Amino acid sequence: MGKTITIAGQKGGTGKSVTAVNTAASFALFEKKTLLIDSDPQGCSTQWAGLSNKDYNCDLASVLSGRAKVVEAIVKTRLDYLDLMPAGFTLFKVALKLAKNPGNEKLLRLFLKDINDKYEYIIIDPPSSHSFLSVTAMAASDFLIVCMSLQHSCQEDFYGFLKMVKYIKENHNVPLKIAGLLFNGCRKKEDISSFLHEQNLSDIKEMVYNNFIPEDDSIKQSIGLNIPVALYDINSKSSTAYLNFAQELHFFFN
Ligand SMILES: Nc1ncnc2c1ncn2[C@@H]1O[C@H](COP(=O)(O)OP(=O)(O)O)[C@@H](O)[C@H]1O
Ligand SMILES: [Mg+2]
Description:
Elements: E1 3-8, H1 16-29, E2 34-38, H2 44-48, H3 60-64, E3 75-76, E4 82-85, H4 90-98, H5 107-112, E5 121-125, H6 132-139, E6 143-149, H7 155-172, E7 177-186, H8 189-198, E8 213-214, H9 217-224, H10 229-232, H11 237-253
Bound molecules: adenosine-5'-diphosphate (ADP) and magnesium ion.
């Protein structure tokens, strides 16, 4: 059974999409069969995988609206071990309709059962904020990786986020766990400890991954070229960080 992981985080711009794409690509480079699911109508992960809506007929919206089977909405990427379920603006419209019926947040979890044994990792890139689609992503997952940045997080946000996770676990009866916290865009590890101390969050230090993702222009360049950073420059500091992070996760999950 594959591990289904949502790259979560309350605010926009904390690096959820960067992390979803590059963690999924790193798993794929380690020859772990991986599916990246874009569950954000902005379609960042989809673009980053180098796809536009001309490249696919079905996407997550087609699956959630019952117009396609999960397997029909999976496309190959330029990495052999990485597949993608794309998303685009239609997902926004489908989500508005589905949100009217309580219980629809569990549709994705249900549909993913058909392909769970085909992948070692399923990584979901959700939209920011509390919405039908972010709850759908989390309710489909067994694990969350929380993306944090030194610029964005604060104690209130973090505890607010924990409340949402608790709500989803209880109301949707899913075994959701926070696997860990990943810091993005930092210069050095000591900055994380100082930040947690300043924000009165020292008690969550144990949940922070050993690896963190540095601020790196290679990330911006790779976004511009629609490729994971490892394909832009495998020796860049962020590529190394994501490869190390994928190894840390693999060790954690096995
Ligand atoms: N480690 C990093 N180094 C450099 N730029 C980064 C890094 N992480 C994120 N960014 C920048 O921040 C932007 C927002 O990141 P993104 O992953 O799209 O955030 P989210 O999905 O949480 O809204 C990216 O487009 C990129 O320009
Ligand atoms: Mg995003």
